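User: I'm curious whether this sequence folds into something compact or stays loose and floppy. Could you predict its structure so I can see for myself?
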Amino acid sequence: MKKIILIATLALSPLFLAQEMVMKPVQSYQTAQYKADKKIFIDNLLAKMTVEEKIGQLNLPSAGDFTTGQAQNSNIGKKIEDGLVGGLFNIKGAEKIKAVQKVAVEKSRLKIPLIFGMDVIHGYETNFPIPLGLAASWDMDLIQQSARVAAREATSDGISWTFSPMTDISREPRWGRVSEGSGEDPYLGSEIAKAMVYGYQGKDLSLANTMMACVKHFALYGAGEAGRDYNTVDMSRLRMFNEYFPPYKAAVDAGVGSVMASFNEVDGIPATGNKWLQTDVLRKMWGFNGFVVSDYTGINEMIDHGMGDLQQVSALALKAGVDMDMVGEGFLKTLKTSLQEGKVSQGEIDQAARRILEAKYDLGLFENPYKYGDVTLASKEVYSAENRKIARNAAAQSMVLMKNDHKVLPLKKTGTVAVIGPLVNNALNMAGTWSVGAKHANSVSLLKGLQDNFGKEVKFLSAKGSNIDYSEKLENIYAAHGKLTDRDSRSKEELLKEAVSIANKADVIVLAIGESAEMSGESSSRTEIDIPASQIDLLNELKKTGKPIAVVLFTGRPLALSNMKDTPDAILNVWFSGTEAGNAISDVLFGKVNPSGKLPMTFPRSLGQVPLYYNHKNTGRPLSAEKTEKCEYERFRSNFMDECNTPLYPFGFGLSYTNFKYSDISISNLNPKGNSTIQASVTLTNTGDYDGAEVVQLYIRDLVGSITRPVKELKGFQKVFLKKGEHKKVTFSISPEDLKFYDNSLKFDWEAGEFQVMIGTDSEQVQRAKINWIK
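Assistant: Here's the prediction. I'll summarize afterward.
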């Protein structure tokens, strides 16, 4: 089903258009002749390699970002010289990387170049919003553009491989790594996965400004029990294939060069040693022909899973289809012994080495080992003014307006604004989690952004008001990777008194609260997902002033906001917006940009509802629509005694400074047959006072199936920009391809029958029509 994404003019910079970023599969340069030449080259190279050198290609240590002078003299440098390293990660800078590469290609026996990787997750030094924030833009061109900018910066600085995109579906906001993914929906996640792969890898992976992507974490990492990181996962294969696998497969179909195994188990076997997952599904079913890398010490961690000692788990991983061992050195230390004992075969070692060498060939490293990293280019490309401009736009497009009573926003460019909160003047936390390459001191804080952009027209007064949390112990945990929370030693009373005093001098309050950057991310699971009490107390105290309050909400996950949503007049969810956070937030607060973001993940009313997601299935005793809408309890129905079934903010939700009106749905054929295509249309009208963009969303429900089916599934979306008073017909094409699912025998097909077509502004507010599709 083809989707036409209509983007607001602001989202398309001249630089982006000039790059001809057409969303087409990569590796189009791999002609039959290219593949034949590659095979001959790799065959000849493998024939020259010793067993030790082949196993060395499977070894991926962390460089620890050692200095240039350490390249040859370090322990890793000696292993590189001996041909015992296939790649390195966590080393940054063109000069450092060239120095290390020089050891590989000038000191080792066979002069095989290294591949250099880094967690370039949402930008390199120019940081874009966290991935969950980028997903909220629902703008595939913009997301692809963010990956393209990241690739240009990183490759100019020597990096040729990124451990991104993370495509793990998750319905669990307690899990901190939801910040690194695209949310709860397999369709949206699949579209984003493709966009990211295209952005990183481009049309020709051998070019010096494209880099190899690595889809992760294969598979099901986002479904850990209780949202606890690295925890057990157990689910049916029906759920795997229909709900969790699609984004991984989309990345493979887009030509992703590598795949990272997940930490969790699948069907009782850790993913790192799971042959059904890494070989039967990934390679045989989906046709993946790149290489698989373990996650950080993932092979070694199978020991704690109870799968054997280091030699046993290393052999298990290799035989499962894992080609590269990240950090653990289990392959390096044990595979030769396992080969001698007949526990692995020479063919299995050769196959893994071949895949690593093929990746290096595709990257053009054999032709020019020094192609990545140009100090002169990096000085112009990395953190350039043009890249920051693109990041600023991306940040603004990702923000979600969740509440705007009394039209408090956009702010007027006059008077006095009190800017209060623990995140008002903290540049270190603006980029959010997994911002490995960023120089955080360069990020623009909220206060600086406001002052720089509107300081001549508006008087800004600021106060901290509270710490992130009352607990100093927790704040020390939150301050990971140098992202300090700037804890204030003053008492709660002193902080509140100062904030109230400042507020009383202002016309309106902008209150920056929520999470700090590392309260979400890896190893950042939380048992409570509300805003800490210190900040709620600040909000409640400021409410007493009677001044209008606009909350700027920083978060890397859906939060339970029931204890605060009624207090402020407006809530603008800015996620963690990246390098240009302060500037982008200012643009939206003052109406230079009209917010158009939509939630990629459901926000629950309370933690007790979790997991809560829009595309759930009905039970045999569903709560009636009337009772659901009124939030009324009914005995012997599937509901809570003390809470509604509905979310606080549903998937796809997001307000605008303007208003949009939807017409009824028009269907071109209510009784389609076979493989025909029909059109479903609505007329969208901008009835408000501002120009703006709306994400029009298409959902379909299969009303009767051979297995139980979700109450609705996202099947398309279009981002439509309309001027004030303008209207436009928005049309979606629907074919049987959009109706397919995996049935009880894991056959992927569609079934004839009745379907409900829904189009609307979010997953709950939709227009409906019914069709009967005949085979």
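Summary: The radius of gyration is 26 Å. The first helix runs from residue 14 to 18.
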